[in-house]
Amino acid sequence: MKNRGIELKNLTAGYAPEKPLIKGLSLFMDEGEFWVVVGPNGAGKSTLLKTILGIVPPISGKIYIHGVDCTGKDYCEEKQLLSYVPQMESYSRIFPATALDIVISGLFPRKSRLEPVKENEIKLARYWLKTLELDHLSDKPFASLSGGQQRKVLIARALISNPHYLFLDEPTTGVDIKSSRKILNIIASLNREKKFGILMVTHDLNFVWPYMEKAIIIGNGRFIAGNKEEIINEDVLSEIYGVKIKIVETQAGPIFLIGDKHV
Ligand SMILES: Nc1ncnc2c1ncn2[C@@H]1O[C@H](COP(=O)(O)OP(=O)(O)O)[C@@H](O)[C@H]1O
Ligand SMILES: [Mg+2]
After folding, report:
1. Contact 43 CB / ligand 1 (< 6 Å)
2. Ligand 1: which residue has its CA nearest to atom 6?
3. Are 250 and 168 in the same domain?
4. Exposure winner among 76, 85, 134, 155, fewest CB in 10 A?
5. 233: which DSSP letter?
6. What average pLDDT does the structure give for the chain?
7. Range of weakest confidence among 55-69, 71-85, 87-101, 167-181
8. In this model, does residue 262 exceed pLDDT 60?
9. Whether residues 139 and 183 fall in one domain
10. Does residue 202 line the site of ligand 1, with CB under 6 A?
11. Does the Cβ of 203 fall within 6 Å of ligand 1?
């Protein structure tokens, strides 16, 4: 067992043992690696993230974090190395917290309930808001921000607990193209410059291709995991998404063309 990285051993995930979504997945995600999870809606991508995070219990198999078996444990110190930006549902418009409050709330799992927020913690929250280009919005109500801004606040919230690995579930879905590019650029620089390990669910292969190293493709109750060049090709993507996908090689790297109009 390696005493770094996240290791999945024969992991079977889902909500009913007779109907697993992912069956027998083994892989090793090292520190600082950039992994992408792709596959159609309902395939089990979110469930996979939640299972590794310990939010959903696995049907069988083991999850080791930095060499420690955290499978099914309510408390496992190594889980604190993982942080999570869930798939976006809509947030209540009357939710009163500010962007700064939301970022600080990322520290709460580690604080006792009555412990006041310290000055250095507010500083840290402001540092992450600045890194995510949100400093001008820190005192604005979270509910008043755009979808893209809310995602960035939630990324800052995930980072304040000082994780080694950041799990992101479709961080750009429903966000306009320019804001999506910004968010993905920030995620790429968190990986390259700050060395966070990234495990991200996304459909935006065109943008993440240069940054990602490994992929997990899930669909039709099957999966493939490994180096991106070895597992991602037209046939696999077309089969798993159920639409024709063409990969055009250009000098700037591959471009993924989706749908009947292009191919
Ligand atoms: N808490 C749950 N209990 C039972 N079934 C669930 C639960 N959450 C999700 N599912 C089902 O599991 C399947 C996979 O869901 P999910 O992991 O969210 O897929 P994806 O993220 O790939 O779109 C779906 O059929 C979904 O309805
Ligand atoms: Mg999902």
Report:
1. yes
2. 15
3. no
4. 76
5. -
6. 92
7. 87-101
8. no
9. yes
10. no
11. no
Q: What is the pLDDT of residue 242?
A: 87
CATH at 156: 3.40.50.300
- Is 1 domain-assigned? no
How would you list the strands of the sheet with 68-69, edge to edge? 22-29, 6-13, 60-65, 68-69
Residues around ligand 2, an ion, CB closer than 5 A: 45-46, 87
pLDDT at residue 95 tops 80: no
Does 47 contact ligand 1 (Cβ within 6 A)?
Answer: yes
Helix (H, G, I), strand (E, B) or coil at 201: strand
Interval 201-252: pLDDT, tens:
999 999 999 999 999 999 987 899 999 999 999 999 999 888 999 999 999 8
- Please tell me whether residues 148 and 183 are part of one structural domain: yes
Count, residues in the chain = 263
- The encoded tokens of residue 23 equal 């069956």
221 lines ligand 1 (CB under 6 A): no
Name the closest ligand to CA 173. 2
Q: State percent of the chain over pLDDT 70.
A: 95
Residue 110 reports pLDDT greater than 80: no
Asked if 116 and 194 count as a contact pair (C-beta separation under 8 A), the reply is: no
Bridge partners of 25?
A: 11
Please check whether residues 14 and 132 belong to one and the same domain: yes
Give the HSE-up count for residue 140: Cα atoms under 13 Å, Cβ half-sphere. 14
Q: Whose CA is nearest to atom 10 of ligand 1?
A: 15
Q: Look up the domain containing 208 and give its range.
A: 6-232
**Cα-to-centroid distance, 42 and ligand 1 (Å):** 6
Whether residues 144 and 47 share a domain: the answer is yes
Residue 183 counted as domain residue: yes
